[in-house]
Design a protein that fits this description.
The chain is an alpha+beta fold and 598 residues long. Among the domains are: 78 residues, no CATH class; 103 residues, no CATH class; 54 residues. The strands form three sheets. Strands 1, 2, 3, 4, 5, 6, 7, 8 and 9 form a nine-stranded mixed sheet that branches. Strands 12-13-14 form a three-stranded antiparallel sheet. A hairpin with a 5-residue loop joins strand 13 and strand 14.
């Protein structure tokens, strides 16, 4: 039997029809139910209401339950929405952007500077600071793994290396950065234009190139197979990377103002981790995420970007996950962090604020969660700004050469400062700048300062091995961090990066030399080494036997090969191709000529 469902034009008609239905149990229960309870939207949407369940339901006629079930459908002229006017629901609602006073935290973000975690003596040399990062264990691991790789590859003429030799090898790399040449071989050249005596005296060219060929950090035979969960693209360098990150954070006090940015390590070979960044000075190479001190550029933590993986697909985005990973070690330290618009979002700043980390960053105008004024075009003149706040996050829109969008949880958006801006004609113009924008510019350049110091006399060189560029980066990072700690301990000493690397080279090499004898050029001018085969012979004529003392007998060059009449030597060289002009006797140009004509 078909059941005809009743339809009503609006909720009022449906409610009147429900109230008009007679009930067999009209007694005290209906009288106790108030009108407010009947008129609520929940009573209309819930099908199993007590007042309806008590009514008689016929299998042949439509029940009240069916009528109420079809009231809030799209067929009705108006929909019934739940009442949201209660105080409890308004308190739990999400905050909105509004122009409300922002309470700036009472924290000095410049109070903690980069200083060593453990005290140093005033007499400590640059080597003592460098060896806080490249410890004895690091050099021992380099020596062990280098010997293991040489045995696995069965390198010819290989002699096992040791810790002392590895220190000298790293010192030579630092010294080569001070005296850069296109090829390693030129440091041992016989040409005085290229030969560098302090480097060539440490070890022979063959030994240096053998160490370069066998240098390794990890055992290749224990590497996890590709495709397994344990596979690591940075397996070859993983022990060194972990040791450096741990040492960087352990040997320096965490400063109160830091910055997060991306860096590039140049590499033009073939590798899946290589990135192309057209807006960077180094356009092709490995991308690194770096957290550094805002004032000095001291690197606390870095990560090498190995490419997109399955975890990047859902949940938190890559940029936000990078910031969260890099800041794990400084949670609840009331540290200020600055980063650019690649990482920034309102949700990220809120998440960092819950961990007592304050942040200031630029933001893209199309990011989700920003106020409407971020996407609206406003007629702001240079120096004018607009701002809004949402909970403890402030948004600032400031007009400079172009519109600048900034988010901050640390500085008052209503506070302004006067800054000087350079015009196209070279003149200076004073404009009004919001405090968050000024503080962002002041605290964002930590990673750039590190890159500037790293590029000065860098040890990095071209190599066919994809991981050598990253190894050179680690050495440069350790040198820069050691230099920053050294200058913090000796603030009155004027130490340049050049002098620091020079003293570091001499300290690591010391008196070490793997040569069996001293260099032939030590203490004398650069001359071409005479090449003699067989027994040693004198290379010149004594002064008492000069050729001008033998009368009319003078040597003349001949083209045919002849045997010396005096010493019977038969050499296929120019010394045995002379003949006397007077007597025609073939003699050597050596003392044989003078001795024969006595």
């Amino acid at each position: 039997m078909s059941r005809n469902r009743l339809r009503y034009r609006n909720a009022k008609e449906a409610l009147d029809a429900v109230l008009a239905i007679p009930s067999d149990d009209e007694s005290d229960d209906d009288e106790e139910c108030s009108d407010d309870e009947v008129n609520t939207a929940d009573d209309l949407e819930v099908s199993e209401h007590p007042g309806v369940a008590g009514a008689e339901q016929s299998s042949e006629d439509d029940s009240d339950d069916d009528i109420l079930y079809h009231l809030p459908t799209s067929d009705s002229d108006c929909s019934v929405e739940p009442d949201t006017g209660s105080d409890s629901e308004s308190e739990s609602a999400e905050p909105v952007w509004q122009k409300k006073i922002f309470r700036e935290p009472d924290i000095d973000f410049d109070c903690i500077r980069v200083v060593p975690q453990q005290p140093f003596l005033p007499t400590d040399s640059p080597v003592d600071f460098f060896e806080k990062f490249f410890t004895e264990d690091v050099f021992q691991n380099l020596a062990t793994q280098t010997n293991v790789y040489a045995q696995q590859c069965k390198l010819r003429y290989w002699t096992d290396t040791c810790v002392r030799e590895m220190k000298a090898y790293v010192g030579m790399l630092i010294g080569m950065g001070l005296h850069s040449l296109p090829q390693f071989r030129l440091y041992w050249s016989s040409d005085p234009l290229f030969r560098v005596q302090p480097l060539s005296a440490v070890m022979s060219r063959r030994r240096f190139l053998k160490l370069l060929q066998a240098l390794h950090v990890n055992d290749n035979t224990k590497a996890p197979q590709r495709g397994t969960p344990e596979h690591d693209k940075l397996y070859k360098l993983r022990p060194l990377l972990d040791n450096m990150n741990s040492a960087f954070m352990h040997h320096a006090v965490s400063s109160s103002s830091q910055s997060i940015d991306e860096g590039m390590v140049q590499f033009k070979g073939r590798n899946t981790m290589k990135q192309y960044m057209p807006m960077k000075p180094v356009k092709r190479g490995y991308k690194l995420w770096i957290r550094a001190d805002a004032a000095t550029g001291y690197v606390y933590h870095f990560q090498v970007y190995t490419g997109r993986n399955d975890s990047d697909a859902g949940g938190v985005g890559l940029a936000a996950r990078v910031v969260q990973k890099l800041t794990e070690a400084i949670h609840f330290t009331y540290t200020h962090v600055a980063f650019d618009n690649y990482f920034s979002s309102v949700d990220l700043l809120t998440d960092l604020l819950q961990k007592n980390l304050f942040a200031t960053c630029t933001v893209r105008s199309n990011r989700r969660g920003l106020p409407e004024i971020a996407s609206q075009s406003t007629n702001l003149t240079k120096g004018q700004s607009e701002w809004m706040t949402k909970s403890r996050v402030a948004y600032i829109k400031w007009m400079d050469t172009k519109c600048v969008h900034v988010l901050s949880t640390a500085f008052d958006p209503n506070a302004t400062l006067d800054v000087s801006r350079k015009q196209k004609d070279g003149t200076r113009l004073t404009v009004t700048c919001p405090k968050p924008v000024y503080e962002y510019t002041k605290r964002m350049g930590g990673v750039d300062r590190f890159d500037q110091r790293r590029s000065m006399y860098s040890v990095s060189r071209r190599s066919r091995k994809w991981w050598m560029r990253l190894l050179y980066f680690v050495i440069d990072a350790a040198v820069v961090n050691a230099y920053i700690l050294y200058t913090s301990v000796h603030p009155d000493e004027t130490m340049t990066m050049f002098n620091f690397r020079l003293r570091l080279f001499r300290g690591l090499v010391g008196t070490y030399s793997s040569r069996s004898r001293k260099s032939f050029t030590e203490g004398v001018a650069f001359i071409r080494r005479p090449r003699s085969r067989g027994r040693d012979r004198k290379s010149g004529v004594p002064d008492e036997l000069r050729l001008d003392h033998v009368g009319n007998h003078m040597p003349d060059k001949i083209s045919s090969f002849r045997r010396c009449r005096h010493c019977s030597s038969k050499k296929n060289n120019k010394r045995s191709r002379y003949i006397c002009r007077a007597c025609g006797v073939p003699l050597c140009i050596t003392p044989c000529f003078a001795e024969f004509h006595k």
